[in-house]
Design a protein that fits this description.
The chain is of the alpha+beta class and 436 residues long. The chain folds into 4 domains: 152 residues, no CATH class; 86 residues, Helix Hairpins, CATH 1.10.287; 48 residues, SH3 type barrels (Roll); 83 residues, 2-Layer Sandwich (Alpha-Beta Plaits). Helices cover 58% and strands 13% of the residues. β9 and β10 form a beta hairpin. α9 packs across α11. The longest helix is centred in the middle third of the chain and has 30 residues.
């Protein structure tokens, strides 16, 4: 572990260039030149910003547009870096190189700021931008002032050994930075591959979802393994950890694993797929998305039912669009006994056949199903080609047209009749024989 004497020596060696020049007039000359370069850079940046055209580069890809915007916004930094390097090169011809130390530090800081800003402009994730900027600035600042190696040694000197793994602050910092960047890159690559998969016309929707899940999972695993290898963690030393994870899966994560495996089964057997109309228990709707743990079913009224994948494997599921999207619609109606049943059936069939969305390939049918207490009961059936558009709307059109036709042809719809007898509570009710 680094002691106080070593830390003191590191600070003294790092501050030695500045300490050697603190009484030299060249120090104040450099400060003045840096101030002049900063004023010129600010003036150039203001002029460029006032004349900038926001529509420039609109035909370029989004990444190139962001890079061009970053260069435009960094005009002042570029100017400052160029001026300080030019001034330092001119001063080296007049004075020893150590008299240009501050100019070299200023130029390096400007270049580091420029590179970090351009790289950050290509990243959309705010968390990754913050982490990359802070990490890069810390490394750049320590490297410029000559403190990088001593700080790395100090962070690596404090260690704790756990399960054969030597844990240090340096290892934690490297693992956090590398893992964040690796996961961001894997997510970016997975989105590109998912876009290609979803745009492929040769793949079914369920196969597209399966491939996107496999790609995302595989890239995440590869990113974690690459980071672990990069920071020097031996995979064999994680045997205890993987064993504990296995015990956890066996004890408390059965449902998660079951839903994951059920999701893979649903995607491979193609029993359900995005866009299908299904009924699971009391839930009916269209499958909007299929996730690793659940599927999302849109009810059509703004609600989304999140049904675990296990329920679709273990419970009874009605898939209305499994084979095709045609559907049989059944409508019940009744007439009084003074109507001609054959004429009523013929009229109902003609009305259904003339209704839009009723399939002419499968002609409608009408059957007399029952002699009820108040009239005859019929069942009208017909097919619609697109159950996705709903069935209640076509039912309504057929019933309205049927009611209008019955009124026009004098066919009556039975109405239940009830006899009500009112008697005085002070006198006994009449006998049944008297009522007759």
């Amino acid at each position: 572990m680094m002691d106080l004497n070593a830390l003191h020596e590191m600070l003294v060696s790092a501050l030695q260039p500045v300490d050697a020049e603190i009484m030299s007039p060249w120090l104040y000359v450099q400060l003045g030149l840096i101030l002049v370069a900063a004023v010129v850079a600010l003036a150039v940046a203001t002029a460029v910003k006032s004349r900038g055209d926001s529509s420039a580069g609109s035909a370029l890809p989004s990444s190139l547009r962001r890079l061009l915007r970053g260069l435009t916004m960094s005009t002042g930094t570029i100017t400052f870096a160029v001026l300080t390097m030019a001034i330092r090169a001119a001063m080296i011809a007049l004075a020893p190189p150590h008299h240009t130390y501050l100019l070299a530090v200023a130029a390096r800081f400007a270049l580091a700021w420029l590179i970090i800003r351009l790289v950050a402009s290509l990243i959309r994730n705010d968390t990754v931008v913050w982490l990359v900027s802070v990490s890069a600035w810390a490394v750049a600042a320590l490297s410029i002032v000559g403190w990088l190696d001593p700080v790395v040694d100090a962070l690596d000197s404090v260690a704790v050994v756990v399960g054969g793994i030597r844990l240090t602050p340096l290892l934690a910092i490297k693992a956090t930075v590398f893992l964040t960047i690796a996961l961001w890159l894997s997510g970016l690559l997975s989105r590109v591959l998912e876009t290609r998969i979803e745009s492929s016309r040769d793949l079914t929707p369920s196969l597209q979802v399966l491939l996107t899940k496999i790609v995302r999972f595989a890239l995440t695993v590869v990113a974690v393994m690459v980071v672990m290898a990069a920071v020097g963690i031996d995979m064999s030393s994680l045997a205890i950890f993987t064993g504990a994870v296995g015990v956890g899966l066996g004890l408390g994560l059965q449902k998660i694993v079951s839903n994951f495996i059920s999701g893979i089964i649903l995607l491979t057997d193609k029993s359900v797929k995005p866009g299908d109309l299904i009924t699971v228990g009391d839930y009916f709707g269209r499958i909007s998305t299929m996730k690793t743990r659940y599927i999302s079913v849109a009810a059509g009224d703004g609600r989304e039912f999140l049904i675990p994948n296990e329920d679709l494997v273990t419970q009874k599921v009605v898939n209305w669009t499994y084979a095709d999207r045609t559907a049989l619609v059944k409508i019940g109606f009744a007439t009084t006994y003074d109507a001609d049943p054959r004429a009523a059936c013929k009229l109902a069939i003609a009305i259904a056949a003339a209704t839009p969305r009723v399939m002419p390939q499968k002609p409608p049918g009408c059957l007399l199903t029952e002699f009820g207490d108040n009239g005859m009961k019929f069942a009208l059936t017909f097919w619609v080609p697109d159950i996705d558009a709903g069935t209640d709307n076509v039912k309504s059109e057929v019933l309205i047209a049927l009611w209008e036709a019955f009124r026009r042809d004098g066919i009556r719809i039975p109405v239940p009749l009830r006899e009500i007898h009112v008697h005085d509570a002070r006198t006994p009710p009449p006998d049944a024989a008297e009522l007759k």
